Amino acid sequence: MSPRLHAVILDLGNVLAFHDNALLFRRLGERAGLNAQDAERRLSGAGWTAANRGQLDAEGIRGDVCGALGVDLPMDEFNALWNCHFTIHEAVLPRVEGLVGRVKLVLLSNTNVLHVEWLRPRLPLLERFDHLVLSCEVGLVKPEPAIYQEALRHAGCAPQEAAFFDDVPAYVEAANAVGLQGHVFTTAAAFDAQLRALGL
Questions:
Q1: Is the pLDDT of residue 160 over 90?
Q2: Mean pLDDT confidence for 64-70
Q3: Where among 57, 82, 107 does a domain terminate?
C-alpha cells in the first residue's frame, strides 16, 4: 500500500508557465544579427548555469548575455526579450489551486532572478504555495540531489510521501533516486489523471 501523500512538489517551467526557448533564441538572435542556432550556441555555456545558481544578478545576466551575443541592450529592452518566451499555462492553474490546503505545496525550479521577477506578478498562485525553492536563491540546480532534499525539508515529510512533477525526464529520474514519487508532466489533462491516481 502506498504511503499517504503529504506534499506535491512542482516544477515551474512547462508546468505552470510554458517557455519556448526556440522563440527566445530566435528573438535574441534577430536583435544581435545572428540566427537562432548561433544565439543558442553562444548562450548555452557557463553563464546560463551561473544565472540559475544565483551567481549573476539582473545586471550580471544582462551583461553576460549581451557580451555573448555581441550587443549592448538597455535593461528595459533586454528584460522584455529575456522574458518573451513565457506563456502562462492557464489550464493547469485551477488544478494546482485545488491542492492548496490539502497537501504541502512546494515549487522547485531551475531559474534566474529576472525570470522570477517577471513571472511572480503574472502567477499570483505562487503566493499560495507553502514554499518556493528557486535555484537562483538556494545556489543548487536540478538534477543535484541536494536541491530535492531542500524541497523535502520545506515539505516536511519523507521522500516517499511527496509526489514530484517535472517536464524533464532526467529531473524526474533524479527525484526518484532520492526516494520521491516522480512523474513526468506532459499536459493539464494528464496531470489531472496523475493526481487522481495519487488519491488527489
A1: yes
A2: 95
A3: 82
Q: Are residues 109 and 178 in the same domain?
A: yes
1 pLDDT higher than 60? no
Q: Is residue 1 part of a domain?
A: no
Instruction: Looking at the structure, tell me whether residues 11 and 105 fall in a common domain.
Output: yes
Find out whether 106 and 130 touch, Cβ atoms under 8 Å: yes
Residue 107: Cβ-neighbour burial (10 angstroms; 0-12, 13-18, 19+): buried
pLDDT of 45 > 80? The answer is no
* 85-88 CB contacts, 8 Å cutoff, 24+ apart: 85/19, 85/20, 85/21, 85/23, 85/24, 85/27, 86/17, 86/18, 86/19, 86/115, 86/118, 86/119, 86/122, 87/17, 87/18, 87/20, 88/16, 88/17, 88/18, 88/122, 88/123
Q: CA 177, CA 157: separation in Å to the nearest integer?
A: 16
Query: Domain containing 59 — which CATH number?
Result: 1.10.150
What per-residue confidence (pLDDT) applies to 136? 97
CA distance 58 to 155: 29
* Residues 64 and 130 grouped into a single domain: no
Task: Please count the structural domains in the chain.
Answer: 2
Report the CATH number at residue 150: 3.40.50.1000
